[in-house]
């Protein structure tokens, strides 16, 4: 039986380990019939080794530092070499903030650190969409990974601001690409145990203690419950947004958090 993404070519950014949300998105996309291309930042050999754990082979990672203008300027040509037929979907799973922006006092982060967090975590969504426009097929789907920024969270600080900015960027990207039937949406996931989550949660009261406390609170408050160990709900939702099954949905944030965002714990 054909999968939800049969015949589609999907570009996935942000794989760091096999615990990364991006890895599970790539895995689910392949299981649903997609051909997957990945990008990598810095440790390309390591990323290629991680990618060998996917169900199907993928080409070597395309190098992409979203702060490097040359990488962005040449990205379409490098992707076209791997996918002459163009690509049908893009997953933006890129975020970074210097340590001063996470966990420290909110007022303590200097602008040079905040500006980097905003550039990598929010502006890069627009930069990536622009860079890939020449190889995006009409009717393609852009999906960015979000974390609900509507409330302040302990430790999250300027990354929360970056995610709020990302939501605004998404709306404008959707406006720019909609003329070609290209959709742009974000998937706001609940906390998942990844390297990024561990960095965000910190270890002020012992390694992983804040992440465990966050998971306990989230699981208790969410109507459907929540498990930081299970990325499959998020990955399958991203695959659905990449598919043709949401043809009228764009400029939206789709929550996959067990309903936590709508509940007072």
TrEMBL record:
GO terms for biological process: fatty acid biosynthetic process. The keyword Zinc-finger does not apply. It comes from Tomitella fengzijianii. Homodimer. Homotetramer. Keywords: Fatty acid biosynthesis, Fatty acid metabolism, Lipid biosynthesis, Lipid metabolism, NAD, Oxidoreductase. One of its GO terms (molecular function) is enoyl-[acyl-carrier-protein] reductase (NADH) activity. PANTHER family: ENOYL-[ACYL-CARRIER-PROTEIN] REDUCTASE, ENOYL-[ACYL-CARRIER-PROTEIN] REDUCTASE [NADH], CHLOROPLASTIC. Its EC number is 1.3.1.9. NAD(+) binds at residues 14, 20-21, 65-66, 94, 163, 192-196. It catalyses: a 2,3-saturated acyl-[ACP] + NAD(+) = a (2E)-enoyl-[ACP] + NADH + H(+); a 2,3-saturated acyl-CoA + NAD(+) = a (2E)-enoyl-CoA + NADH + H(+). Pathway: Lipid metabolism; mycolic acid biosynthesis. It is an enzyme of class 1 (oxidoreductase). Substrate binds at residue 97. Pfam families: adh_short_C2 (PF13561). Coiled coil: none annotated. The gene is fabI. This is Enoyl-[acyl-carrier-protein] reductase [NADH]. Belongs to the short-chain dehydrogenases/reductases (SDR) family. FabI subfamily. The keyword Lipid biosynthesis applies.
């Amino acid at each position: 039986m054909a999968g939800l993404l049969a015949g589609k070519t999907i570009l996935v950014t942000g794989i760091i380990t096999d615990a990364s949300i991006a890895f599970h998105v790539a895995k689910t996309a392949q299981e649903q019939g997609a051909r997957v291309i990945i990008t990598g930042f810095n440790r390309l050999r390591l990323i290629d080794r991680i990618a060998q754990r996917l169900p199907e082979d993928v080409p070597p990672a395309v190098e992409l530092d979203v702060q490097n203008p040359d990488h962005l300027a040449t990205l379409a040509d490098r992707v076209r070499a791997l996918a002459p037929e163009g690509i049908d979907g893009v997953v933006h799973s890129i975020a970074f903030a210097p340590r001063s922006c996470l966990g420290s006092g909110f007022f303590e982060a200097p602008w040079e650190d905040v500006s980097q967090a905003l550039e990598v975590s929010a502006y890069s969504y627009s930069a990536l969409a622009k860079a890939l426009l020449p190889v995006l097929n009409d009717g393609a789907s852009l999906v960015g990974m979000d974390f609900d920024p509507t409330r302040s969270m302990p430790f999250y600080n300027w990354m929360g601001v970056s995610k709020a900015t990302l939501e605004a960027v998404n709306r404008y990207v959707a406006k720019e690409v909609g003329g070609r039937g290209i959709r742009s949406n974000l998937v706001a996931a609940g906390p998942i145990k990844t390297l990024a989550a561990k960095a965000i949660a910190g270890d002020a009261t012992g390694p992983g203690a804040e992440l465990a406390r966050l998971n306990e609170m989230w699981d208790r408050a969410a109507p459907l419950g929540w498990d930081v160990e299970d990325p499959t709900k998020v990955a399958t939702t991203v695959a659905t947004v990449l598919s043709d099954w949401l043809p009228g949905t764009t400029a939206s944030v789709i929550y996959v958090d067990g309903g936590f965002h709508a509940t007072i714990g």
